Amino acid sequence: MTPVMSRQPGDETANMPDNGERGSVDGPSSELEHVSEERILDLLLHGDLTLQGLVPWSSNYTFLVMVEGAEMQALAVYKPARGEQRLWDFPASTLCRREVAAYLLSRVLGWPAIPPVLLREGPEGLGSVQFFVHTDWEEHFFTLREDPAHDTALRQMAVFDYVVNNADRKGGHVIKGQDGRLWAIDHGLTFHVDYKLRTVIWDYAGETIPATWMADLRRLRQTLTDDSTIVDALLELIERKELVALRQRVATVLRRGVYPRPRRDWRNVPYPLV
Description:
The chain has about 270 residues and is an alpha+beta fold. It has two domains: about 25-130, Phosphorylase Kinase, domain 1 (2-Layer Sandwich), CATH 3.30.200; about 140-255, no CATH class. The chain has eight helices and eight strands.
């Protein structure tokens, strides 16, 4: 089987080889239409990881890896804990865990679309392994925001970012898969107990959140109270005080019922913007 070499920014595809003996998952456009999310997670957890190279535009050590199972192979993004840069307000070796916590929360809500990701041992130690989304890296929030087809996905991201207290929703953290679907990526700076929201998605500030999503948030609130399985899983990834703060933010959204507004005493956007 021929390995896939690391992609460079601007590449629109990184074709997966297929020797006729194994299936090839080329990206979310094929993976989520034809393969269950559970099978993808099983591949990410149990497949053999082979480093393909460093992702050159990442601030932390981030690797492109080939994940190979008995019946399927795919590219993934591997972020080892020991490759994280130490930040003054986020503890080292927790960013990869927060990536997974955000994904778990999105599964409970049903939105936004986040590529499957989990925590496991890899060639450089424990880290997050996330299914690779094939995309045109010239596309990002600022090139996608005017297309009405993306309005729902962007609105969901805006609510989600407040709930998880996302300190780093750059324009480049909104990407479009080959199937046209928008995906939210890079959730390492989330779940802080203090207000940290920094995002480029302020387009809907003060507008009413749709009733169906409010119902999803009420279900999330109930889950975070009663479902010990979800709570225990989150407590493996974030601190108990961060879980308490998460519950409080969900309650705040439900009480107010509107998209958050920028604060006058806060730097509301990340740097750089893309």
